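fwd from M.: "can u put these together and see what the complex looks like"

so here's what she sent:
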Amino acid sequence: MTTYPTTWRRPPQIFTHRGWRIGLQLAALIYLVFAIGTLEVSWARIAEGGERGMRFLMGFLSPDFSSRWRDISQGLIESLTMTLTSTVVGVAISIPIGIGAARNVAPAWIYAICRSIIAISRALQEIIVAIFFVAMFGFGPFAGFLTLSFATIGFISKLLAEDIEDIDEAQAEAIRATGASWAQLINYAIQPQVMPRLIGLSLYRLDINFRESAVIGIVGAGGIGATLNTAIDRYEYDSAGAILLMIIALVMVAEYSSSYLRKFLQ
Amino acid sequence: MLELQGLTKTYKTGDTALSDVSFSVPKGQIVGLIGPSGAGKSTLIRCINRLVEPTSGRIVLGGRDLTGLGVRDLRAQRRRIGMIFQEYALVERLSVMENVLSGRLGYVGFWASFTRRFPPADIQRAYRLLDRVGLMTHADKRADALSGGQRQRVGIARALAQEPELLLVDEPTASLDPKTSRQIMRLLVEICTESGLPAIVNIHDVPLAQQFMQRIIGLRAGQVVFDGTPAQLTESALTEIYGSEDWTAMRKGHEDDKDAEADALRRLSVLPA
Amino acid sequence: MSDFPASWQFRSPKARLALWFGWLCLVALFVWCWQVMNERTIWMFVQDAPKQAADIGGRMWPPRWSYLGELMVPLWDTLNMATLGTLLGVILAVPVAFMAARNTSPFPLILRPIALFIIVASRSINSLIWALLLVAILGPGLLAGIIAIGLRSIGFIGKLLYEGIEETDIRQVEAITATGASQAQVLNYAIVPQILPAFWGITVFRWDINIRESAILGLVGAGGLGLKLQNSLNTLAWPQVTLILLVILATVVLSEWVSAKVRAAII
C-alpha cells in the first residue's frame, strides 16, 4: 500500500525561480510607494473641488442647451463637416499610399517611401499635429481638417497595405498569367478582394475622426472641442454638460450606424 | 439506485426531446444509451443532474427526488453525480491537479478553493485517483499539455474525486482514436466494477457498446424503444432504434444533440443564483 | 458563327445608375461640407503657411539639449500617470466587465444596460476631455491626470474584457457546474483561467496607449511632459518644443516595444 502526499501547492506559472518572483513583487511594491509618494495631493484643493464636482454633476443632469446654442451649433457643424471632408480626403490619399506600402505589389523603393509616410503619420499624435497646423494655418476648422486628414492617412494606409499583403495569391497569380499589366492586376485581382474592407475601414475612421474632432478644438483647431473648452473655462458647467451629452450621443449614433453600415455592405 | 419516472423535456422551440422516459438503474450496473443523433441522449443525461431542466417527471437518486430542488440543495445533490464529457471539458489553463481537485468544489468553501488549500484527505484522494488512471507524474502539468486520452483520464479522475454515487458519461470516446477509445472504456468499466458504481454511458458506437455494456437502452425520438442485454440487440432491434437506414453509418458520423447543448448553454448563461 | 451578344456589362444598367448616383451624392455632400467648413477660413493665412512652416522649422532646430535635465521629473510624472491611471482603470473595469458580459451578469436586466452605458460613456470621451473636466474640478496636477486616464481606460478594458468573457468555452463552465460548485467557484475555476491571458494582454496594451495619452494631458494642466510642452509653446521656445517631442517619441517607441514583448510572452 503506497501512501500519497497530503499537501499540494500550485506550481508557479511564469516566474519559476523563487528569487525572481519575490524580487518582482518587491520591486512593484517599492515602485507603488514611490509613485504615490510623488503625487503631492493638495487635500484642501480637492475638498474645494467637491463642491465644483457637485455643480458639474448637476449641470450634467440638467444640461443647458439653449443659452449657448449658437456656439454649440457652430461647433457641431464645424466638427461634422471637418469629420466628413477629412475622411474623404484622407481615404483618397491613403489608397495610392496603401498600395505602395504593400510588399507584394510595389517595388522596394516605393515601399520604403510609403512605409515611412505611414510611420510618421502614426507616430505623431493628433493633438501635437494640430498644434503645428494651427500655428501654420491659423485658428479654425481648416487646421483641424488637415490634422484629421493627416491622421487618417496613417491609419487607413497601414490597414489597407496589410489587407493587400494578405490577399489570396492564387487569384493574383491567375490574373498575372493572362498577361495583364500592373494596373489591370490591381483592378482585377486586388480591388475586388480589398474593396469591402476598405469601405468598412473608411466608415470606422469616420467614427474615429468625429471623436478626435471633439478633442483637437482644445488647441484651437475648431469644432465642438473649442466650444467645450470655452464653456469649462467660464465655469458654465450646465452648457459643458450639454455638450458632453451631445458628444456621447453622437458618438453612439456614429458607432452604431457605422457598424450597421459595415454589416450591411459586407 | 437511480429511478426515472415519466421524464419529459420540451424545449422552448417546441421540440420534444424526451417524452415519458422511465427506467431504473440498480447499483453497479453500467447502462449504455444508444440512438441516432437528435434522439435525446444528451438531453436525458443532462436532465439527470439538471444541467437541462426537465419539463415534467421525477428523478430519484438513492431515495432523494432531484426535481424541484433549490439552488443550494441542487449543489449538494450534484456532488453525488459525477459527469464525464465528450471533449473532456477540462479547464485547459489549470494544472492537472487543479482539474482533479475541482471535483471537490461542492464540498469546500469558496475561500479554501480560491486559495487552493484543499483538505489533506482531498489531496491524498486526488493523488490516488491520478495514480489509478496512470497520470501520477503529470500532476503539475497544464491540462492543455496532455494528449486526448490523457485528458479523458483526468476527466475521469475529476468525476471520481466527487466520490459520486452515479456516473454520467457523455460520449466518452467521440474525440478519441479506436485504440484509445477501447482503453478508456476498459478503464471506466473496471473502475465502476471495483466500487459497484452505476453508470449511464451515452455512446454512439454500437459495437463498442455491445462489447462493454451490461445493459443497453435504445432511444428514438425521445422514447425508449429498446431495453435489454447486448446479446438481445439484434439486427431488427437496431432497425427499430435507428430506422431502416444502414445503422452502421451511425458509427462514424455523430452529431451532438444540438438542442441539449443550446439549452444547457442558455441556462448556464444565466449564472445568477 | 452564332450571334452571341457583342457587348457585355458587369452590372445591370439600374445598378450602375444607383452606384453613380451614390458617388454623386458623396461628392455633392463633400463640396457642401467643404464650403460650410471654410466659410470663415482666412485664405491669406493658408497661402502664408509654407513661409510659417519654414520659419517654425528654422527656429526648432537644433533642439536645446541642455533642457533635458529639466525634463526628467516630468517624464517620471508622465510614466506614473500612465501606470497608476491604468491600475485605477483596471480596478474599476473588471467589475463593470463582469456586469456587462451576458453570461456572468448578476442581474442582466438592470445591470447590463448600466454597465454598457458606463463603457460607452467612458469610450466616447477622450482622456483629454476627461482631464479638462477634472482639472477644472480638482485643480491642476497629477491626480486629475491619473483619474482622467483611469476613467478613459474603463471603457477600453471593460469592452475588450467583457467580449472575452462572453467568448469563454461554455463546456468548461458546464463541467465545473456539474461538480456542484457554487457560482463564485464556477467564476474562479472555469471563467477566470480562460480570460486571464486576455486580461493581461489588454492591460499591457492599454498601458502602452496611456503612455501616449499621458504625455499630452499636461496641455490642459494635468502635469507631466505636456505641461512643459504647453509652457514652451506659450513662450515660443521652439528648440525646447523639439526636445520635448523627441523625448515623447522615444518614450512612446520604448513603451510600444515593452508592450509588444510582454504580450508576445503571455500569449
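replying to her w this: Chain A touches chain B through ten residues (CB under 8 Å).
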